[in-house]
User: Fold these one by one.
Assistant:
Number 1:
Amino acid sequence: MSGKKTKRKTLGLSTRIFIALLAGAAGGVLIHYYMPGGYIRDKVIVNGLLYVLGNGFIRLMQMLVVPLVFCSLVCGSMAIGDTKTLGRVGIKTIIFYLCTTAMAISLALGVASLISPGVGMSIAAAEETPVAAASSINFADTLLNMIPKNIFGSLASGDMLPIIVFAVFSGIMLAKLGNKASTVSNFFSQFNDIMMEMTMAIMKAAPIGVFCLIAKTFAGIGFDAFVPMLKYMASVIVALAVQCFVVYQLLLFGFTRLNPFKFVKKFFPVMAFAFSTSTSNATIPLSIDTLHKKMGVAKQISSFTIPLGATVNMDGTSIMQGVAVIFIAQAYGIALTPSAILTVILTATIASIGTAGVPSVGLVTLSMVLSSVGLPTEGIALIMGIDRILDMLRTSVNVTGDAVCTTVVAKQQGMLDKAVFDADDVKASE
């Protein structure tokens, strides 16, 4: 035989995380039902090995939150700052994206509240502080606290809302200064790349972390966790479907009077491509081309709004975070006050600017959203294994939202050829 070695097909990270989820659930159930209680099970295995490895992984994710979100928001805001070159187009685009994100998170909270996915899990929180934090949040104070008194103090303590405000403000100023601040702009761009690489490196340990966290959870509650997790998946899928096929299409028809069914039919291949790749960035060229050839959108519009949407418009991620907040709160038996719900909407909407670059980075920023209302970040482990499945659907929703916004803005600016939009696919593609 030749010296060439045949390449063995390795399992992808999402597959390994899902296998770890199933293995952890099975292992936890076996420990719960078949291993007698005592020092070995309770102290060495469950609250020793599984606890240390599982929470060690959570700590690694939490380690990234402040620098990752800060750098991502600065870079995203620099892109937003460039909208002055397109004037009203840029302003309309950003407002549309932020409004649909706020609608998405609100929809997710509503759907999750109706389905109640976390009811029945009854996971005991490790301490009582989350309950106090969730019940003592004042929304007026939250708004004031978004303005940092000392940004270095906020960075050191991980106080995310003032960090978000300062990062966005910094990014806009960097964009305004342009070449005068190119050194600082390049620093943030390069440091953002480093944080993305670090995220991917830590995510390689996700199967071990998920296995330990899920095994510890199921070791304590047995089969009681299966039905709530299925209800969590159903909640996310229902919210995504409503956002994609109801909310977006109503907005499209309301602003443009274009046929939503024709839009979905023509854009569906892009949605399918986004589903298969699970990344918004990979769909940018296909989205621009499809919007131009099949919808009649001028490329001057789509070449700006689509890449910007891939950076700041993460409605699918916001839906996941909204459902996850309700799921984790119910699983730990923590009641969320109306002011806490408003805090979630505000935090997730603003944080969506910084969740664009890397698959599963939404889970990192989810820990920030949970912390903003005093919920245990350990609850992320409950959804981590199945998140990659839902991530494929979320990506389809994200790119559809970008396309709807682009079509609306192009129509209002008189840069959409309605004859191309109304033509069937055969004629449009010729």
Note: The chain is about 75% helix and 0% strand.
Number 2:
Amino acid sequence: MKLVAQTAPYIRKNVSVKRMMLDVIIALMPVTLFAMIQNGWASIYVILISLVTMVSVELLSHMFIKWPKDMKFKELFTKDGFSKVKSTYTINNFTAPIVSALIYALILPAYCAPYVVFVGAAFGIFIGKMVFGGLGSNIFNPAAVGRIFVGICFGGQIGEAYQKQQAFIDAAAGGTPLAPVKGSLGATGGYDLLDLFLGNVPGCMGEVSKICIIIGAIYLFARHSADLRAALGFLLSFGVVMLVASISYLGVDANANVGEIWLYQMLSGGVLFGAAFMITDPVTSPVSKYGRVLYAAIAGCITALIRVCGAFPEGVAFSILIANMLVAPIDYFMRGKPNTYTWKQCLGLGLGIALVCVIVSASVMGGWF
């Protein structure tokens, strides 16, 4: 008898990587089409540059990572050499960077300078993915890596892109609906909640139309190509913290509308987009059930902390990258434990969220004293 070492779980769903990637691409189509219709060619060239860059960089990087042993470079230009290199590629080497490219483009504003889109796409796919070994080996979300990189290095250019986009949308001034209310939780920035839901506001291309995001998310979850636990963990943790922050604002303005403030925060920025298409990434998520809920809840709490206490109006991409760094410790903590939920785990998660609520409440009300 021969013993073969394998990794649990041993019973798996009939869901291949190929099918999951194709499902994500299909689910992204509503927001992608909406962005094209709303912004025209200004969004199309951003998406195209992102697609070409990420697919090309991944293919070139993969070629050298999987380069056949003892094969010289000049052999690549022969029929046999080309066949050897070609045999290392699969459909997943095309669909995976397409998914990352679409997500990266959709978390950028239209009218971004082409070089900004290119630099972020190349940096995200190479530094965020290929240096770790490629498909299935990366610990960071490539789209979030690229977006944060250009946001830090080319903040001025991205701000100009927001301003150009503003001229084509009938809405109040400001880069995103979160920008004019930063520092004043009770403000609404002149945006109507219905406009926030339908997408008649400025912002990153994929985050504005909540109805398109919901349509794509329903498809993903119906096809079991995304983990509903992670999405709900992110939304519920963020929603609870922001609800406490909204209630705390009554200490600043007794006439504040708590429900309106809370809905404004839930419908603004990239919370729904991040919950549907980024926090559910299986490669950069923990493997256990509770681990994924904990991971998503951490990202949701950090997003709320950045919005209320931080210097940036939005924090979804930042929070996802920070949570990505905690995936390995979470998996280590859950190693050897039952793949289920216990009351101790739920109590610990609840206490953690409660602590964040206390911090946010104190920040909104102006301090501890």
Note: The CA atoms of residues 234 and 296 lie 5 Å apart.
Number 3:
Amino acid sequence: MKELKIDATIQNLDEVLAFLDGELEACGCEMKEQIQLDVAVEEIFVNIASYAYAPNTGYALIQIEELGDPKRVQITFIDEGVPYDPLAKEDPDVTLSAEERQIGGLGIYMVKKSMDKMTYEYKDNKNVLTIEKNI
């Protein structure tokens, strides 16, 4: 398992994505899955940076692990921000037009649809969000 502990600020997004892409390339991840993982990680990290500690700044710990049979990547995000379970929020009604839909929730919805597994738990005063993608 590889990990990156970084200040949860939007300015650090490029470093987070560089860390992710380096690990995905090392495990032979195909470009399609890499792009889906990049989008998911960006959405989750930006949410942590924007909301977890507001108006202050805290950290995000990002752990990447390659698992086998089937070959997949598991990425875990850990923060000590405000408890928030993004999976508890109802999915947006994507049959409505953009003007009719409520604001928010579309990014996490896209993450849920593009990943093979997504879990959340609040443990030891920490948000722990894990995504998995078969590669």
Note: The CA atoms of residues 20 and 38 lie 8 Å apart.
Number 4:
Amino acid sequence: MRKADKWKDYRLIDASDGEKLESWGGVRLVRPDPQVIWKTPKGQGWKNADAVYHRSQRGGGEWEYKKKLPESWTVSYRELSFNIRPTGFKHTGLFPEQAVNWDLMDGLIKNAGRPINVLNMFAYTGGATLACAAAGASVCHVDASKGMVQWARENAAKSGLSDKPVRWIVDDCEKFVEREIRRGKKYDAVIMDPPSYGRGPSGEVWKLEDSIYELVRLTCGVLSDNPLFFLLNSYTTGLSPSVMSYILGIILTPRFGGTVSADEIGLPVEASGLVLPAGSTAVWTKSNNLMG
């Protein structure tokens, strides 16, 4: 497992009984996590949390604030800065485990020795977009949520990256890719971070396991003749690293050569010294041993 263990502003303090206790820039939050099926003793730190998210039987949930918190605050990872806001769906606007992938992409782009044009799909609040832009790439950031794209732009401004070559696109990712193919637009790298489940603007159901193969196959239509990487994330336990590796291998390797690596990614838990799984990543590149 690859660990996001270089954070200074984020800490995963403990995890027990379906919940995790985190520190986001000193603000302590308790949030649900379905991976946490063990029940270890909860110490005093849990009682000192600033806010706790409670799930509702009807879906969603709400925050219980133990103290008044700012509407948003900033955490940083290396040169990148992010606005953190507790949302009604338990999220904070950032997935800290993705820092391992930001570091990976940073190295690939900086070592490419040529200009790199990146397509970031389901780009959320822009962690990967900012990492690639800071490394010197041009980025096309695509997300169907106008609010998330605006949040990403705020993060770019916080990080001093507003003047970097980033296209901010509010659109359905699949439809955008179809249009880019018709336009003849090409990219040297693709980041695909799709949700496990969702509904489209017309009510159509998106389920990752049912849709991901065709989406990867379609998106290969925008790759340049000499692509640098294709990175695929998954947060669902129904899509293992091996399955994602197989998908990238059968679609990309026959055409471009290269290799595929895949692994779980996770966050170190201070209380136990163990690592909490937080999803999986598969990446195709022309190089070897990049996921070590």
Note: The longest helix spans residues 241-256.
